[in-house]
Write a structure and sequence with these properties.
The chain is of the alpha+beta class. The protein is built from 6 helices and 8 strands. Strands 1, 2, 3, 4, 5, 6, 7 and 8 form an 8-stranded antiparallel β-sheet that branches. It comes from Alishewanella tabrizica.
Length: 196
């Protein structure tokens, strides 16, 4: 699928992602009053086995998923490291040590802030109205590529991925926007309009 992206399209998409992810980082930074560092956005086509590799890291991470629908459809996955969560909880005025209920609330709140700001910024820039559902916490149990395909309802997808790191903390998060095959074509058409 990467071959479908010209260099100009990839550059435009990466810049749009930079802006969107920057908005998400600013939203979290204001909340915890700490600087957030962003990675350079990655734009890749994911195979089922690559999805399986991503989801296999559930021992060190929490995962949330949020579907979105509108002009483009897909899911926003958020991967949040377990390490450093207590420090972030303190910055967000949670009582520590965290109870199971508080930990779940924290993870879902973080996912909603990051994925919500990312998707909103992204869709607004491209005039692709979308509605994001509330996040749900889950523990991946998939072990094979075939199960991953069934689990995510698609065989390949365009992944728009960026990593957020909280300065002075071990906490790290990754937001991955997964677009269904048909939505990739809608996305490319919108990008082409911007490039004209």
């Amino acid at each position: 699928m990467n071959a479908l992206l010209s260099e100009a399209q990839r550059d435009a998409l990466q810049e749009l992602m930079n802006i969107s992810m920057g908005q998400a980082a600013n939203a979290l930074a204001r909340l915890i009053e700490t600087r957030i560092t962003l990675s350079i956005p990655r734009i890749v086509a994911a195979t089922p086995s690559e999805f399986a590799a991503l989801l296999s890291q559930h021992e060190e991470n929490w995962f949330t998923r949020q579907s979105f629908m509108g002009k483009v459809n897909g899911e926003a996955l958020t991967q949040l490291t377990k390490e450093g969560c207590e420090a972030l909880a303190v910055a967000m005025d949670y009582d520590v040590p965290l109870s199971d209920a508080s930990r779940k609330e924290l993870v879902l709140e973080l996912a909603n802030i990051l994925a919500g700001a990312c998707l909103t910024g992204f869709s607004e820039q491209l005039d692709l109205a979308t509605k994001l559902s509330m996040p749900t916490l889950y523990v991946p149990t998939v072990n094979s590529g075939e199960q991953v395909v069934e689990y995510f309802r698609w065989t390949s997808t365009l992944l728009l991925e960026v990593e957020f790191s909280v300065d002075a903390s071990l906490f790290d998060s990754k937001v991955i926007i997964c677009l269904e095959q048909r939505s990739v074509q809608t996305l490319l058409a919108s990008i082409n309009e911007l490039l004209e």
